[in-house]
Amino acid sequence: MDVSIPPDDLRRSPTGRVPEWVRADASGLPIAPTEWRPTVYPGLYDRPPEVPVRSSTWLRVVAMLVAVLLVILGMQWWAGIRNAALLGPDGSGVVVTMSDAELPTPEVIHSDHPTPGFEEAAAPLGTAPVPEATSTSYAFLETQETARGRTVPVAWSPCRPIHVVVDASGAPKGFVPDVVAALGAVSLATGLVFVTDGLTTEPATTDRASFQPTRYGDRWAPVLVRFADADAVPDLKGDVVGLATTQSVQDRRSGLAFYVSATVYLDTTMLKEPDFHGVPVYVPVLRHELGHAVGLDHVGDPDQMMHPSSSDVLTFAEGDLAGLGQLGEGACAPGL
User: Model-level pTM?
Assistant: First the structure.
């Protein structure tokens, strides 16, 4: 019998040849053991041989795992930012909360002003709603004329987010959520987008600089919201329970002035007062001062939030909303 012709079902090498030991095994002849196929381990070579993993293969595997991990972390970061968006009391407005690790830290180039155009978009980030009813019970802190002779209020650029920091030292437990909710109400009325950068230890002062590169980097100093006393801010003496200051800069490209920074100080004496209509007494004061911070002035109508001593208004009324809506319709300021 010719045993050199194997049946079709014999194992073959990748080249199509049948190894001699396969022929011998099929013919029933004894098989001499070899170093690469020991007979003491039957079935060892019934599975395909393993391919050795070289260092370059390991590098590719590690690089792939790192890339997948970065994608997952990026998705979690974005989801976290979106989930951290705390809105106004009715679920509207845009207020994004960022952690310290996520804050932009651009390199400082100038000593007296930031590099122009930081976070400035080509169009407004939001749209102010049209008030259902027309009211004239509002006033602006400052007005100016455009190149076409139109009188407009001095306002923030709606084409970049307004950053806000909070000093919660000595403040009630719910102070930060109250600040975010108040910002949401302003955002809803103006279309302006606020970004809360987190907590700060910046002290209260009457001559706060609008550009603080050592503390906030190459950008305008964010709006500062905190409690303060009359020792730190003398203007809080007497019956003054809140104070807001704004800082404006002229855009050289358009010639218009824009607000670039602000402070909101709440008198610490309110911390000893009982709640007002179920809310902390400082909450309506906070909203009143934020109205100033975006450009509203006092009005004589006691039914409006911007009345200097109204005691029954807890949120923005019809006239306030009409003024806030106009403050959200400002021009972009790429030159700032």
Answer: 0.70
